[in-house]
Write a structure and sequence with these properties.
The complex is a heterodimer. Chain A is an all-alpha fold. Chain A has a domain of 207 residues: Orthogonal Bundle (MetI-like fold), CATH 1.10.3720.10. Chain A contains 15 helices and no strands. The radius of gyration of chain A is 26 Å and the shape is globular. Chain B is flat. By secondary structure, chain B is mainly α. The longest helix of chain B is centred in the C-terminal third of the chain and has 33 residues. In chain B, helix 5 runs antiparallel to helix 12 and helix 11 runs antiparallel to helix 12. A two-stranded antiparallel sheet of chain B has the order 1-2. Classes of the chains: A mainly alpha, B mainly alpha. At the A-B interface, helix 1, helix 3, helix 6, helix 7 and helix 8 of A face helix 1, helix 2, helix 3, helix 5 and helix 6 of B. Chain A: This is Sugar ABC transporter permease. Chain A: InterPro entries: BP-dep_ABC_trans_perm (IPR050901), MetI-like (IPR000515), MetI-like_sf (IPR035906).
């Protein structure tokens, strides 16, 4: 905090003409400790990020260099491991993950947009009860419902079916999405909507031309969170899918159990499995900040 | 403030929207009812979907929990009232798993919150490469937990070639077989690594929402950094901290991937948490009744704890207005 405050001052201090020596000392002290803080921040960030770097670098190694004592830091990078992973017929797994993630996220948005509208802009009477209900379903541990879901899916003959995952991932993300989206809707100033209605725009037109553009960043943020959680989901996928509908985390687990000793190949598979979500998250990190702070940010 | 605003304007809109001025008239009542339904309608698909997909299986879990039903035993199902519950409370593995769940959740949420707050404070200032540092710091949250488990259990913690063991070797410490000697600690480490960015992002949002004039006033009053943080920033962060603890706990209680892939609950059942143990009872032991009873107990415990947390949050929502 103090640094944010003092950071504008060193620039002015550099121009000289500081009234008192005391203040000058504080300024130069501020800038010195500022750069020290910057170095510390970078160091901590690099240490924290090191496991990722290690995983990526391992994925470019030969197997004997990947599991060496002491660890190998310098090596000639090879794409061999990636080629090996891709040759393993990973395509169907990625296709299943893409369907489960994409369709469930779409479904969440389609359900959550009207719901959050009814909880913020044109609120129903028991708004906070409804919100409480939504979030309380997240407290239901998935393990507590896995048996009935397994039994129901078996009776309906939808075990090992990617659409079962679509439904489950939708219900898994919907409560959080409603909460997040509601916080974005609440930021739409009431006057804007009233003005639109004054202009004689119908409800649908108001929604389409005024509301949706204003909350699009919020929808994007919500979608990103849904994508992260459903792409990475493991428990349902492990228990409800087999050969046909298995997703990327299951593929990764398969690689782990069958070729756990092939560390470089395993790392390459991990990198490939994580890449889509990591790239999406990097690209939309501003939305991530906004999205995660649902309701709390005002 | 926001809730106040919307409910206020909602009421206004409701008032102007109702055609009949006379609240007693049947027309007005019908209009009010229609108005109520037109408000409820957009909510219904999401609400009905959520009730169907989450509450029906849970009701079935309660039903199963009262029955003796083991897929391996041929004698079929019988209604046994609360025997499953008595059995699981006699089961020391269940009690151990419950304790592990608590340790993992508390340990992970607490450590991730502290670390996340530290990172958030460091990020809440202008400096060279701030965007890059933020990108580096959020990455563990984006990486697939299955990949994280592999990365930690094999690449970092392996006793012979793990990177972390090499690092502690530099300081003269012998290699440690982390996942078998301290399985809970290993799992918590991986979890903290994954959840710290989540906490960091939430706290960062809180820091950036602080009114700058308050901070300036504090500085003018001669408050040092420590005092400003303790008496100005921390109270304002309260809501964000509560929210991150609640959300973090909700997700961490359900941890399964790391346990399954890093330690498989072992050695023995030393690192099994409730989700993992229930999974074992259900899918490896085929004891549907007991697994269901454990699920019910987990839900009750979670709801009791979380209700307290939620009440706190809702209260702070209210007092904010």
């Amino acid at each position: 905090m103090a640094t944010t405050l003092t950071s504008p001052t060193p620039a002015r201090g550099a121009a000289g003409n500081a009234p008192t020596a005391g203040r000058q000392r504080r300024r130069s002290g501020g800038s010195a400790s500022g750069s020290l803080l910057t170095i510390l921040t970078w160091l901590l960030a690099l240490v924290f990020f090191a496991p990722v770097l290690w995983m990526v670098s391992t994925s470019f190694k030969q197997e004997n260099a990947a599991a060496s004592t002491p660890p190998t830091f310098f090596f000639e990078p090879t794409f061999e491991q990636y080629a090996a992973v891709l040759a393993q017929n990973a395509g169907p797994y990625f296709a299943n993950s893409l369907i489960a993630t994409g369709v469930s996220t779409l479904l969440v948005i389609v359900l959550a947009v009207p719901a959050s509208y009814a909880l913020s802009i044109r609120p129903v009477k028991k708004t906070s009860d409804v919100l409480f209900f939504f979030i309380s379903t997240k407290m239901l541990p998935v393990v507590a419902v896995i048996m009935p879901i397994y039994v129901i899916s078996g009776r309906l003959h939808v075990l090992d079916n990617v659409w079962t995952l679509v439904i489950l991932y939708t219900s898994m993300n919907l409560p959080i999405a409603v909460w997040m989206m509601r916080s974005f809707f609440q930021e739409v100033p009431g006057e804007v909507l009233e003005a639109a209605q004054m202009d004689g725009a119908g409800l649908m037109k108001t929604l389409r031309s005024v509301l949706i553009p204003m909350v699009t960043p919020g929808i994007a943020a919500t979608a990103l969170i849904c994508v992260i959680f459903s792409w990475n989901e493991f428990f349902f996928a492990l228990n409800l899918t087999a050969a046909k509908a298995a997703t990327v985390p299951v593929f990764l687990m398969g690689t782990m159990t069958s070729e756990g000793l092939f560390l470089a190949k395993l790392s390459a598979a991990s990198v490939l499995a994580s890449l889509p979500v990591v790239l999406a998250g990097w690209a939309a990190q501003k939305q991530l900040v906004r999205g995660l702070s649902m309701g709390a940010v005002k | 403030m926001s809730t106040d605003l919307t409910t206020g304007s909602g009421a206004d809109r409701a008032a102007t929207g109702a055609p009949g001025r006379d609240p007693e008239g049947p027309d007005a009542r019908r209009a009010a009812r229609r108005e109520g339904w037109s408000r409820r309608l957009p909510l219904l698909p999401a609400l009905i979907f959520t009730i169907l997909v989450t509450q029906i299986p849970f009701a079935m879990t309660i039903w199963y929990s009262l029955r003796s039903w083991n897929l391996l035993r041929p004698d079929g199902e019988t209604f046994v009232w609360f025997r499953n519950f008595v059995d699981i409370f006699m089961d020391s593995t269940f009690r151990g798993a419950a304790l592990n769940s608590i340790i993992i959740t508390l340990g992970c949420v607490f450590a991730a919150l502290i670390l996340g707050t530290l990172f958030a404070i460091l990020l809440d200032r202008e400096f060279l490469g701030r965007g890059v540092v933020r990108t580096l710091l959020i990455t563990p949250f984006l990486i697939m937990p299955a990949a994280t488990s592999m990365l930690w259990s094999v690449s970092l913690l392996n006793p012979s070639f793990g990177l972390l063991n090499w690092v502690i070797g530099l300081f003269g410490a012998g290699p440690i077989d982390f996942t078998s000697q301290m399985p809970l600690f290993s799992v918590i480490m991986a979890l903290v690594w994954q959840w710290t960015p989540f906490m960091m992002l939430l706290i960062l949002a809180g820091l950036q929402a602080q009114p700058k004039d308050v901070l300036e006033a504090a500085a003018l009053d001669g408050a040092g950094w420590g005092k400003t943080f303790l008496f100005v920033t921390l109270p304002q962060l309260r809501r964000y901290i509560e929210l991150s603890v609640l959300l973090g706990a909700i997700y961490v209680v359900n941890t399964f991937d790391q346990i399954y892939l890093m330690t498989a609950g072992g050695p023995g059942t030393a690192s099994a948490n409730l989700p993992f143990y229930i999974y074992q009872r259900a899918f490896l032991g085929f004891d549907v009744g007991q697994a269901a009873a454990m699920g019910v107990v987990t839900v009750i415990a979670t709801i009791i704890i979380a209700t307290f947390a939620l009440r706190l949050i809702f209260r702070s929502f209210d007092t904010k207005d």
